[in-house]
Amino acid sequence: MEATGYPQLDALLPRLAAIPTLDAQALHVERIAVLGRKQGALTFALRALPTFAAEERKRFGAEANRVKESFEAAFAAREYELAAQTAGAVRPAIDLSMPARGRWIGAIHPVTRVVDEIVGIFRELGFAVAVGPEAETEWLNFGALNFPPDHPALDMHDTLYLTEAGQSDEGRVLLRTHTSPVQIRVMQAGPPPYRVVIPGMVYRNDPWDASHAPAFAQIEGLAVDEGIGLVDLKATLTHFARRFFEPATKVRFRPSYFPFTEPSGELDVECQICHGSGCPACKQTGWMELLGCGMVHPKVLQNCGVDAERYTGWAFGLGPGRTAQQRYGVPDIRLLYGGDMRFLRRIAGQDPA
Ligand code: PHE
Q1: Which of 165, 235, 245, 268 pairs as cysteine with 287 (C-beta 3.0–4.6 A)?
Q2: Which ranges in 4-124 belong to alpha helices (H)?
Q3: Is the CB–ligand 1 distance for residue 317 below 6 Å?
Q4: How far is the CA of 196 from the centre of ligand 1 (A)?
Q5: Is the pTM of this model over 0.90?
């Protein structure tokens, strides 16, 4: 601030200039020493007021006011500065009240979880994992598995073909409609015994609706050795169902048909939602279909160069998407294969592990 021309006031100006150097304690003392109503230096200077003539008194009063305002501003500025310094000293230089960025927490997809669990149960029983390509030939997907050439599964409206007819003696290339061609690949790769589970994606020219998906997961199982019978199939698959669901889960085998197994069956488990009393999920039957199975057809063994007189075996095929629906009570298969993160997060949160 410039000099006022009044010595009583100008005497205070060095103190005004010194304010930015004061610490909190000195600032407090100095504020009272200058602006204090009774003892303050400014109050003291104002005592000269009555000694001035009326005109001069006005000017002096105005100058005194300017000095007072300058002190007030300087005290406030220094106070603010000291407060900011203290805040900086005790708190990190980041704004802790700023909302955090969302964290992405990964989780295993429910279908993958079911696949991993099933593979784990069969591993305990001595099964290895085998995999095969998703693009297969007609021979591996159908012919070697004993499908007759006029089987409806071979139709354009069931199977997604990738090439035109006649490219090789194995027929057209197609997207595999089941994981069963990997049975053939395993058996062609070496002599028995075989004990494998085969997880993978399969493709069908199916609608995308509550109970169908054109691309879905399967798990295949194959056990071939000397002396394997239907009792091994039933015992192993019953054990599997009770390991996967509850130890006391009721199961039943129903006769069925697959060209590559004879006899063929389907394994049902007690409905996991109503436990047998009947509900919309099991269409009031009390049962849920878990898998297709059967004794490997001798023709299939022969097609792979396996001696069907010496070796026998069984196989099964299961849709882990269906199984995940049963386990987590998911009414629509599109929720599992549709990739909607809101649904998947909910299922992941619902998982015990
Ligand atoms: N491959 C059959 C299907 O996709 C399932 C199956 C596999 C049945 C193995 C019996 C034995 O429907």
Answers
A1: 268
A2: 7-10, 13-18, 24-35, 41-46, 54-90, 110-124
A3: yes
A4: 14
A5: no
